[in-house]
Amino acid sequence: MKTLVISTLILLALACMDKNSKQQVDLAITNAQVIHLETGTVETQDIFISNGKIQAILDVGTENTFEPDTLIDATGKFVLPGFWDNHIHLRGGDSLVANNKNFLKLFITNGITTVRDAGGDLTPSVIQWKNQIASEDLVGPTIYTSGPKIDGPNATWAGSLEVETEEDVKNALDSLQELQVDFVKLYDSRISGGNYLNAIKETQKRGMTVSGHMPFTVTLKETVEAGMDAMEHLYYIMKGCASNELEVTEKLKSGKMGFWDAMPALMQAYSDSTAQKTFTMLKGHDVFVVPTLHIGKTLSYLDEVDHSNDPYLTYMGQGIIQTYQGRITRAMSASEEVRKDRKELDTFFGQLAQSLNKAGVKLLAGSDSGAFNSYTYPGISLHKELEAMVQNGIPPLDALRTSAYNGAQFLDKSSNYGSVSKGNVSDLVILDDNPLEDIRNTQHIYTVVKGTQVFSKNQLQELLNSAIMD
């Protein structure tokens, strides 16, 4: 009898030990085709998630002790990091606060779990949304913001910090640091060449990340050597690839040539040998480039494409749609020569983006979506940007890297984001089809995981429906 009791106690103890050895996790994504952007490999794996972080990634069939609260069978599905849109704008003044907040839903429904807000006039609201999203009190992507742009006196964009002196530059950066912005955005509408370069150098002294446009009164070499971390758009890269850059710079300084007048001259003076030296310089200084191809094409063909039935207009609201009119009016009133030049420039930029990628310059996928940027819709435009890259000869794997993988590198967030790796934040997108075979498959979204939040296909559709604005 005593032996029987002891045996029973041992069995009960072993059962308890077995139960206690199970590791409870919030979510398991099983049988997934995991796209590892860092290597380009696709592996059939199980992903285990708890508290918004990836706890383990195991090959399918590997014995484990994980006990998930929720299970997603991803057989035949493809998993990769949630997309990053590395250039958006949350802006337009107080009357458009609600519209901009509505955009946050569109990012999530498109699998975009992180955005880089590249300057606007809604900083208090943006910072509030950023904090609410971080605490999961608001549905939306992680926001990294520059706050207001830095520019010169009488700046084009509302809310810009205007600088005329070296002291102004320091004060502007002081205010941005007080706001705890994630990076600094420089604009080129009115800032002097000297203040522009001083601003870049001062950000480097303070350990701040800086991206921006570039006044044509300075050279690309001066900008890079001052410490610029990322160039927004390809105008400035084209300038640095032209054999006549110094001549054009002097004409801009003397007022003999304007920004748009310089475009045909620079494009015609593109030199492959100069370009290769420029690409080497960009790589050597670890400068990222944001091509913004999709918006370029959209704006270049405003005179030919009818957008009146675009499905995404229903999510914009009349206030945002009204801001499109300025660019539309300018496009429709432009001369035939200007229209032709703009289209040629658009084609050239596609070729330039491919050349940059082939040379190993790091690209960032950014839509430039937001108020005033006609028909470049938040969310869907990031997918169109990836499409545009591939259409211009960039391999699908490289295009995918320009989103989350390179985005995390640029903002020094690779220890938490950008890859499907143990310990990383569980921002993931599950796709029905392989984007390496067809980049348009990035739009075939099955599930979005944003930290501890999981959005099924049905929930994503409900979220999209809730974003409709009158």
TrEMBL record:
- Keyword Hydrolase among record annotations: yes
Q: Does the keyword 4Fe-4S apply?
A: no
Molecular function per GO: hydrolase activity, acting on carbon-nitrogen (but not peptide) bonds
Q: Which residues form the Amidohydrolase-related domain?
A: 78-453
What Pfam family is a match, any one?
Answer: Amidohydro_1
Q: Which residues form a coiled coil?
A: none
User: By its UniProt entry, which InterPro entries does this protein fall under?
Assistant: Amidohydro-rel, Metal-dep_hydrolase_composite, Metal_Hydrolase, Metallo-dep_Hydrolase
Keywords, ordered alphabetically:
Hydrolase
Q: Which Gene3D superfamilies match?
A: Amidohydrolase, Urease, subunit C, domain 1
Which superkingdom heads the taxonomic lineage of this protein's source? Bacteria
Q: What is this protein called?
A: Amidohydrolase family protein
Q: Which organism is it from?
A: Flagellimonas olearia
**Source lineage:** Bacteria, Pseudomonadati, Bacteroidota, Flavobacteriia, Flavobacteriales
